[in-house]
């Protein structure tokens, strides 16, 4: 039987986001950029935030101001407006000030995608305090700050909205070598579920989307090395579908649905886009 894999999701024809503004963190590259481009292609104006610098606790390079500028360029090529913010999501004051300013410029806020994050790998008992603090801070506290900055704006508008948090298979399973990341992403799930209940009377929906591996250029060489040393854990990193990794556009397609009015009756869920990994 010949090898077959469905193509990456095509450029959308839907106009689900006409007249809407989306705030996306971690937007300089990878999933965040793909989400910005997807929503812009469907009519949204974009507020794109990213740290744009290296993170000391990772083995891969961080995004750059040039990466964020390229995301803005791609959005503008689609005929949409874009405002960029260079900020660490752990700095609530800067996130809040940047978002308020961007909303004043673009006129409103409808969609929030808390996507910024990072990870590194080690056996749980060998994670040092710096790695733990940075991982929890950037993946969980940063997601909280994103929501905390956006929610008062959505409530004041009184026209509903959606908040989508980037989770992970590590937010649904105890993957080895990632205890700090696992803890952070499980925390993101809890945060989303609590917010879903609190915000439901205001027609503001909160959900999490859970990828497995995504081809975003972030090479975690330490995980590869750890699996060579501890091969017993390798099956825990094996998906069901016959693909090694997802593309950023695969995740963006799922986010574009769950954040849209087509999913207006969906809140408080964990949506896996993980090649069937959590079904095994």
In short:
The chain is α/β, with parallel strands linked by helices. The chain has helices at 30-41, 65-77, 92-106, 129-157, 179-199, 221-229, 248-258, and strands at 21-25, 45-50, 82-86, 111-114, 161-166, 204-211, 270-273.
Can you walk through the features of this model?
The chain is an alpha/beta fold. It has seven helices and seven strands. It has helices at 30-41, 65-77, 92-106, 129-157, 179-199, 221-229, 248-258, and strands spanning 21-25, 45-50, 82-86, 111-114, 161-166, 204-211, 270-273. It has a seven-stranded parallel sheet, sandwiched between helices. Keywords: NAD, Oxidoreductase.
Order of helices and strands: EHEHEHEHEHEHHE
Distance between the termini: 24 Å
Described by the principal axes of the CA atoms, the overall outline is globular
Helix fraction bin: 25-40%
Largest sheet: 7 strands, parallel
Number of helices, where a helix is a run of at least 4 consecutive DSSP H or I residues: 7
Alpha-beta content class:
alpha/beta
The share of residues in extended strands comes to 5-15%
Give the mean pLDDT: 95
Query: How many beta strands in the DSSP annotation?
Result: 7
Rg, Cα atoms, Å = 18 Å
Task: Report the uncertain regions.
Answer: none
The largest beta-sheet arranges its strands as: 3-2-1-4-5-6-7
């Amino acid at each position: 039987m010949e090898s077959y894999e469905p193509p990456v999701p095509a450029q959308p024809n839907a106009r689900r986001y006409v007249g809407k503004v989306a705030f996306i963190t971690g937007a300089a590259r990878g999933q965040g950029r793909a989400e910005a481009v997807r929503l812009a292609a469907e009519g949204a104006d974009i507020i794109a935030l990213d740290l744009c610098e290296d993170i000391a606790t990772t083995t891969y390079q961080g995004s750059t101001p040039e990466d964020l500028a390229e995301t803005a360029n791609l959005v503008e090529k689609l005929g949409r407006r874009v405002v960029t913010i260079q900020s660490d999501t752990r700095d609530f004051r800067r996130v809040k000030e940047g978002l308020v300013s961007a909303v004043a410029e673009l006129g409103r806020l409808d969609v929030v995608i808390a996507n910024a994050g990072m990870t590194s790998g080690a056996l749980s008992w060998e994670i040092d305090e710096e790695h733990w603090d940075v991982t929890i801070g950037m993946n969980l506290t940063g997601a909280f700050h994103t929501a905390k900055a956006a929610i008062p704006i959505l409530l004041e508008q009184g026209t509903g909205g959606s908040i989508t948090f980037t989770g992970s298979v590590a937010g649904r399973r105890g993957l080895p070598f990632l205890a700090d990341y696992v803890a952070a992403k499980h925390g993101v799930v809890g945060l989303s579920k609590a917010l879903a209940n609190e915000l439901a009377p205001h027609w503001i929906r909160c959900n999490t989307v859970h990828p497995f591996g995504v081809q975003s250029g972030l090479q975690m060489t330490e995980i590869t090395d750890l699996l060579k040393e501890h091969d017993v854990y390798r099956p825990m990193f094996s998906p069901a579908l016959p693909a090694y990794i997802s593309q950023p556009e695969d995740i963006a397609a799922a986010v574009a649905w769950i954040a849209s009015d087509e999913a207006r009756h969906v809140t408080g869920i964990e949506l896996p886009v993980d090649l069937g990994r959590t079904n095994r």
